[in-house]
Amino acid sequence: MSGETGGSGDGRTSGDGQGRRSGYKPGQVYGNPAEERESGSVADVTKEGQSDVRPGRAALVGGQDLTDGHGDGAGDRGATGVAAITGRSKPKGTAKGRHRGGRRRGRKGERTVVPEAEFTSYYGRPVLNQPAWQPLNIAGYFFLGGLAGAGSVLAAGAELTGRPVMARALKTSSALAVAGSAAALIHDLGRPGRFVNMLRVFKPTSPMSVGSWVLAVYGPVSGAAALCALGGRLPRVGRAATAGAALIGPAVAAYTAVLAADTAVPGWHDGYRELPFVFVGSAATAASGMALAMSPTAENGPARSVALAGTALENAAMKAMERRLGLVAEVYRSGPGGRWMRAAEALSAAGAAGAALLAGRSRVAAGASGLALLAASACTRLGVFHAGMESSKDPNYTVIPQRERLDAASGS
Amino acid sequence: MSSLIGRNLLAGAEKDPAGDAGHGAPGAPGEHPPRVGFFTDTSVCIGCKACEVACKEWNAIPEDGLDLTGMSYDNSGGLGASTWRHVAFIEQSKPLGQAHADVGHGDMDVLALAAQGSGTHPVEDGSAANTPAAPAADGTDGDGGQDRGELRWLMSSDVCKHCTHAACLDVCPTGSLFRTEFGTVVVQEDICNGCGYCVPACPYGVIEQRPHDGRAFKCTMCYDRLGAGQEPACAKACPTESIQFGPLDELRVRAQERVDQLREAGVSDARLYGHDPEDGVGGDGAFFLLLDEPEVYGLPPDPVVTTRDLPGMWRHAGAAALTLLGGLAAVFAAHGRNGAPVRGFRR
After folding, report:
1. With CB atoms 3.0 to 4.6 Å apart as the test, which of A97, A147, A207, B176 could cross-link to B192 if both were Cys?
2. Does B269 fall in a domain?
3. What is the pLDDT of residues B26-73, one digit of tens each?
4. Does B326 touch chain A if contact means CB atoms closer than 8 Å?
5. What pTM did the predictor assign?
6. How far apart (Å, rounded) are the C-alpha atoms in residues A76 and B284?
7. Is B134 left (phi over 0), alpha (psi -120 to 50) or beta?
């Protein structure tokens, strides 16, 4: 308690809404129900049916299309911020009450004559709080961790199979990437000066604690591998470090999926079975891209195969995840998440095609394919990040799956 | 402390979270006090926000915006770093129980009433002028329900649920969040490094990082007051005893009696929320009596602690990591040593 009051001095300025970490801003995102009332788009409903619209006087009951021709689409308009307050006595159907965008979601796209029961929310406000994570920091952390982890495995393979240029390049990129990923993580802390508190305990229930320890081991090992390769000294230490980094690398690439999934964010948690495969596929894509960009055509055969395998795994796992997510998969198809995911698909298709067809002959084509694959991986991470954030902002993604779960449990 | 071996501590019913966290079990030397909690009976909440004010004052929480939301009398919006009690306001066109919300006032001469003054006049001619007319059952109610002012306000003071299985506590990488001897969940602000992981972990949207401070804050159930044998500030300030504080076992019994009483009185919507030790978070330390679906109040209808699935997550991540390692090894094995390529893979 004492520490908290001590820190409240600068916290007093927190209400200005200017800070990047500030959350809710009235009237900006959630619409203004007073306007709904003014415009008469909200009507009253009694036991006998619906009373007529009383502009300026109607009680606030919106979200639901109660007007049926009287108002100009209260279902859509009221959805911009008025609480949909209805008893759920009838079978579920449409899921209006969306608080922004005006795009209706639901099993049925058509408006029905009888107002069906709605999934309700508290004035369209999110059930969950959104983390103050910055997209570049966290998606960058995912991307760089994947690049480093899969890169270490590729480096070891390249070294064992007589591809020294590729091995040296990937060891270097892995060491730099893990340093960058740690820097991104620390930069995203609310109190960066206290980052060592991450190593205060070891908690298997906290993926971030596990990840911190994994990074604390992997970072120095991959750094040693890179230094030995670049300096040409201590070959035995270099080999041991290369092997060690290759063994820990997959954990670095995969644990970030658990980090995202072990939250209440519907777009991440509900896909916890597939997300690790998306992430390691994306990691392999990134590492193969780096290998293609940095190594001569004489050495890049395995990298080209990995590019194909990585993009295939990433996209297949993504499709499987969307199938499992059901309604929530929308956040991976539309909005910022959808845009990044489409960019990732296009880039990975282009990169994989270039890697398969041209990268064996042309150094320039190999470089271009490699960059496309790196960009594809980064886009995937940004897409997953934004999709998760979107899914936590919309109460429907929280309420509807839970409500369906409850209904299924009570119905059976 | 009963043995922790062989038990699923991530989900399900858990009798003694404080004991499992290492505080002395009841009966043992150094025994911890009984688990305490809040029972918030929203049927008697009048939306006065005394709890919000008392919480802010006692815990010295900074101001976080005197904004008008424009949606109701709610001006704090939701729980957050600097809002540890939040009173929700919901306006509905529904009758409350068997209340006569549809009493007709159409034939009432309010100007004449006003001329009488505010005092109650002695009854002169046997008809109490101040009493509204009885519900018109004689057909005069033929105006299509225009004047039927069926309306109810739901008000509910939301707070951290102090879950039996608290996701924020489980995922905290620094050990800043901990389980107190009272079974509550508290952030140690001198340890929190502001990683923000607890924020998306909370299924209720309670904990949050404070802007410009960076650390995560939430309700402590007035840990300092509990230690001094006092009840939390919000419960102390509540004028209608909507917020009740006490040992959780007692509160659950009391809540069941109250919900039975309300249902008997015709309030069929009354239900308890967060009271069930078998639910997705193992039961809340702060639970509620609600008059409508939880989502109407901004509460998730079926919250589940995210770490319930953590073993599965680690298994899948392990499988994915092995896939990566094995897949890349297979690729290199197929390609063979450079300079002696396996035919068929090289152009």
Report:
1. B176
2. yes
3. 666 678 899 999 999 999 999 999 999 999 999 999 988 777 888 888
4. no
5. 0.80
6. 36
7. beta
